[in-house]
Structure formats: C-alpha cells, structure tokens
Write the structure tokens for this entry.
Amino acid sequence: MFVTHLECSACGRQHQWSRLQNLCLTCGKPLFAMVDLAAASQTLKRETLPGREKSLWRYREVLPLPGDVEPVSLGEGGTPLVRAEKFGNDIDLWIKDESINPTQSFKARGMSVSVSMAKHLGATKLAVPSAGNAGGALAAYAARAGLEAHVFMPCDTPQANIIECRELGAHVTLVDGLITDCGAEIARRKVKEGWFDMSTLKEPYRVEGKKTLGYELPEQSDWELPDVILYPTGGGTGLIGMWKAFDEMETLGWIGKKRPRMFAVQATGCAPIVRAFDAGEKNAPKFPNAHTIASGLRVPKAIGDFLILNILRQSNGGAIAVDDKEMIRVTREVGSKEGLFICPEGAACFAALKSLRSAGKIRVGERVVIFNTGSGIKYLDCYQDQ
Ligand SMILES: Cc1ncc(COP(=O)(O)O)c(C=O)c1O
Ligand SMILES: [Zn+2]
C-alpha cells in the first residue's frame, strides 16, 4: 500500500498510519491519509481501470490497507452516472445515483474503507453517531468484519435506519437530541467501553472511501470533470473527499487543472455552512434549533467546516439552503420525470439547481452533477403523509 503517513489538515503535524488514530494530537483537527502517488502510479493506470473489479477497491493503490489484507467489502461504489432526461431543461444534468450502494446510501463507501482499516489496526468495538445512513453502513460492515457496532442516533431518525441497524446486529442507542449530542455521548463513554470512535472526519479513513466519488466521476465522463457539482452537505465528508481526489488525480496525470464549482446544499432549518459562507467566515458556528426532514443534513456543527468553506471559495462555488416542503415536492417531480426515488438530501440539490439556474449562477449548457446520496425508500416516514 502507498499511504505513507497521516497529516493534520490544519497544522500539518504528521502521525503514523499504523496506529488507530482519531484527531490531530496537537490541534484536534481532522487527519488526512497521504499517498505516495508516484509509487501508486506504477501499477494504477487509468487505461487499466476498465479491466478491474467494479467496487471502489478498484482504486486500491490510492486507498489505505496493506496489499495482502482482504478488504471488508459488500460491493460498494461503481454507481451509475445517469443522464437526467427531462429535469435539466437547458443544462446538461447528470445524477450520480448512490442509492444502489450496499445499505442504500453513499455511506457504504466510507465504512468499507474505515472498517477495513479499524479491523486491521486492532479495533474490536466500533461506535458512531449517525443521522441514520452511516449507522446502517457501519452496522453492515462491522457485521461482515465480525466486530461490534454501537450506533447512536437521534430519536427522530427515520424508522428504516433504526430497524436496519438492529437487524444488522448493531447495539442501537436513541438519543433525545441531535447528531452532535450523539457524538458527545460516545466521547464521554468510549474510553471506559473500549470503543473506537468512527465519527466522520474524526478518524482518517471514511474520507478515503468517500474520495472514490471523485475518482469515479471523470472515469465516467471521458476524463472531464463537470462544470458544477451540487452536494448535500452535512459533515461535508464527500465534498472534502472529492476535492482530495481531484488533486490526487491531477498529480497522477489523469486530469488537468480544471475543477468544478462546488456548491454545498443544506436545509433552511440547518444551514451552518450557508450562513458562514455568506458571512465570509472561516469556520461555521453551531446552527441553533437545527431541524429538517433531511436527516443527513441535520448537522448543526461540522468538524470539517473550515475545509468545506475553503473548497467552496477556492472553486468559485457557493452554499445554498432549501426548505423541507420544496424537498418533498421535488422528490415527486424527479421521481415522475426521471424514474428515481431520491432521498430528501438529494432532492435538496435538485431544488437548489432551480434556484441557482434562475439566479444565473449556473449557465445554459453547463454540465452539472447532482449527488443522490441515498434512497427515498429509507424515508417513508417523510413521504407517507404527502
Ligand atoms: C443521504 C445523505 N446525504 C447526505 C449526507 C451528508 O453527508 P456528508 O456528511 O458527507 O456531508 C448524509 C449524512 O448523513 C446522508 O445520509
Ligand atoms: Zn493539527
């Protein structure tokens, strides 16, 4: 494997990859896995990708995990990039449909890689605070790996997520609060209980799994990145991971300097990144009274806030909020026009597209990719009364 070390995304301090690590030991910010791309490129060539397995482990050389260790995999990644036939009108719209991953969301990508590494480095009990989908994915991959999963979710998490975690053998705790309260509960108990904290961006390898979203995009579109990406942003791990992937692919010589304008899409009831972006802030303070049916966007404070805001600005993108009613309405519009039952988080991006197009922030003919991060089937509680 070609990961050489972990590096703090804020202060640059180096850490060993070969120990179970959470945050930077100096400043408490997220750690990134650094890959020796020159060495990786000896065997990883873009021409040979079509002959490789379909799962995200096709990019094995740029992922962590020693070459002789079997990954914990359920076939995650390799999802279709579907052309929107009717919704896009005068733009060239594509949907990266993540709902067909194991456990029906893109969270499978991060968990396949992070559970593989946690197992390899000796963890036996894994704990995660979750809006729902990450919990389901951890439960599945931990089961597969023969490890214990402890999932902490807000009480109002969609029923499907709660039932799924239990049926996958996880220990489920429902917390009267938000995902940040779930994270605080794990932090309080983890040392005593012997849990390894798998919170997003609080361990270095979920983002490595998520970066494969970025690796797949140019491979699926003649090695050109789109003009615009709309990403439903809670913790922002996918956005951060994709940006890392773009830099890595440029170093590998796979793509050029062009980057998409990256837009973070949030819910009006929980829009810390939108607020901070508009205010020109470097960090996003906790959003008060967070509420939205898009449970994956109900993240009032993200540890990677400074990384997300940097990417939005560097890419000339932005941040936009959408209200819940509009998400519900757009779900049916996309469903009936495109044949995909999208999740509310994905729906937020379709609604955001309309606003950005009307405001002239997306222009005629531009290629836009929307991430439908999960399946609507997991959110029946939100849709049944509509
Ligand atoms: C369906 C869905 N979309 C988007 C998100 C937000 O993802 P991220 O943490 O990468 O911002 C989540 C997180 O729970 C989710 O479950
Ligand atoms: Zn640091």
Remarks:
- The chain has a mean pLDDT of 97.
